[in-house]
Design a protein that fits this description.
With 411 residues, this protein is mostly helical. The chain is built from nine helices and 14 strands. Helices cover 58% and strands 10% of the residues. Helix 8 packs parallel to helix 9. The longest helix has 90 residues. The chain starts with a helix and ends with a helix. The N terminus is likely disordered.
Length: 411
């Protein structure tokens, strides 16, 4: 019969099933032989009891009987082997601190735990032995020495008791002073609470006065700012309002530039150029010492232009967009915007010569304007509408700075 199908033991720790190994130790084999001899003798004396005796309750036994088999399970060697192994495990459990059987993993853990306990016990034995040797090596004091030590300790005890009595008498003598000091402390505590109450009231009153003072100072500051703003009010600021609207720079709400997503009409752009030409022309004429070179501005509304002054025959540069886009391969509208940028830079150089603190936020390099990071051309071609619109916005910022300086001069 297949032993694995007949019986199975479980680990007494983790309850996992265990397989049987027929290669049993000698002790198990001897117990199995003895049990087999005793079982045969009992069966010979009372064969009627053979089938009535139950199997051992501790073992989990299963048996597969062939249809042709007539042998009793009790006569099977596997049963005898299981009973013998079971009895062997019982004896092992009675003589040990743990219950058998165990699986390999639980056995390894138990052995590791016992090794650790053995190592700890060995360490304790070594320490106890060292302490015992140290105690045994110390000399045993004599009775006279012990009596002398007891006498000295009694004298010290008496001295300490006398000192304690003296301290108690001193405390009783000082108790009236302690009571007076506690009463004074209570009075001072009440005075301190009154002082802090008065202090908090003073702080509240001071905070109210400070709030009132701050309000008066704020009103005074607002009045001064309004006065300064009125002093700086100039008709040019009111007549030519330079601002921005998204990506566009504006003058009097007229946009300068075009974008693919926002195609501004050319009449609006021409009108904005007319306003800008008039503003720069007025600022330049108010400065008697300013003498522009190469160009002069002729403001004419939406059809403003620049004229050259360094040529025998003055040449007109239209500062507006028209159907006549190119002349001999050059965009006259682009040439007019470049000339206007040059005119504005001349005016800024004039201001910087008079005021060393004045500097334009964006520098100009021929037909380009920008900062150290990027420069944008004021020409419509061959650049993109985005760069042209950006350049016009930066130019309007420079114009606004010039306008602010001119307004300060007229205050």
């Amino acid at each position: 019969a297949d032993l694995g199908k007949l019986t199975s033991f479980v680990c007494q720790k983790c309850l996992s099933p265990l397989g049987m190994d027929r290669a049993a130790p000698d002790a198990v084999q001897a117990r199995m032989d003895d049990l087999r001899r005793r079982r045969k003798g009992a069966d010979a004396q009372s064969p009627e009891k053979k089938d009535s005796e139950p199997a051992p309750a501790e073992a989990v036994v299963t048996k597969t009987v062939s249809p042709k088999s007539t042998a009793s399970f009790r006569d099977n060697d596997d049963y005898q082997y299981v009973a013998c192994v079971h009895a062997y495990f019982n004896e092992l459990s009675q003589t040990s601190a743990i219950d058998y059987p165990l699986c390999q993993e639980c056995s390894d853990r138990w052995l590791d735990d016992m090794d650790m306990r053995s190592a700890a016990a060995s360490g304790d034995v070594e320490r106890y032995t060292a302490v015992l040797k140290e105690l045994q090596s110390e000399p045993v004091p004599s009775i006279a020495t012990l009596e002398q030590s007891i006498k000295e300790l009694e004298e010290e005890q008496a001295s300490l008791e006398a000192a304690a009595r003296a301290l108690a008498d001193e405390r009783a003598r000082l108790q009236p002073e302690i009571d007076a000091a506690e009463e004074m402390a209570t009075t001072l505590t009440a005075q301190e609470e009154r002082h802090w109450f008065d202090y908090n009231e003073y702080q509240r009153t001071l905070a109210e006065f400070l709030d009132l003072q701050c309000g008066v100072e704020a009103q005074s500051q607002l009045a001064r700012e309004q006065l300064d703003r009125l002093k700086k009010t100039n008709v040019l600021n009111d007549a030519f309002h330079i601002w921005h609207e998204g990506h566009f720079g504006t003058i009097n709400s007229l946009r300068l530039g075009r974008l693919p997503a926002q195609p501004v009409d050319w009449p609006e752009i021409n009108a904005a150029w007319g306003q800008l030409a008039l503003l720069v022309h007025i600022m330049a004429t108010r400065q008697a010492e300013f003498h522009p070179r190469r160009f002069r501005i002729v403001p004419s509304g939406s059809f403003s232009r620049l004229e050259t002054t360094d040529e025998p025959t003055p040449r007109e540069l239209p500062l507006y967009h028209s159907s006549a886009i190119r002349l001999f391969g050059e965009n006259k509208f682009d040439a007019a915007m470049v000339a206007f940028l040059d005119y504005l830079q001349q005016f800024a150089d004039y201001i910087e010569a008079k005021d060393s603190h004045f500097h334009l936020p964006y520098r100009v390099d021929k037909d380009r304007i920008g900062d150290a990071n990027s420069m944008y051309s004021i020409r419509t071609a061959p650049g993109s509408d985005e760069h042209w619109t950006r350049a016009l916005k930066l130019m309007l910022t420079n114009v606004k700075w010039c306008l602010a300086w001119v307004c300060r001069q007229t205050v």
